[in-house]
From TrEMBL:
Modified residues (4-aspartylphosphate): D52
Gene Ontology BP annotations: phosphorelay signal transduction system
A UniProt-annotated Pfam family: Response_reg
Name of this chain's protein: Alkaline phosphatase synthesis transcriptional regulatory protein PhoP
Domain Response regulatory positions: 3-119
Lineage: Bacteria, Pseudomonadati, Pseudomonadota, Gammaproteobacteria, Thiotrichales
Species assigned in the record: Methylophaga muralis
Keyword Glycosyltransferase recorded: no
Cytoplasm found in the keyword field: no
Amino acid sequence: MTKILVVDDSPSLRQMLQIILQNSGHDVVCAEDGKQAIEIVSEVQFDLILSDFNMPQLTGPEFISRLRQLPQYRFTPVILLTTETDEDKKQLGRDAGASGWLKKPFDPEQLVVTVNSLLN
């Protein structure tokens, strides 16, 4: 079973993502911000990470930059979930090491397709 980390400061969105991904056969752990996520990834290895862009403590790009410094996470797929559509923000995500970008609100089926394609 693949392990997915969901990082988002919205409790309702974390819960929704957890349900969608668990119903698709994934083991899901949630973090409420990038700071908590860094603590979690130091103890557990994940196969894929979904991260919000705008969060307190560490933004999505800041979290991804720190994550990419850990040898075991250099090549782990990371998808940014965000309402941001500005090209500069997308570039910030790419520069930090994001593997992909999904715009909120997202289609649950498209989310599952995207996640599964990055895991295969």
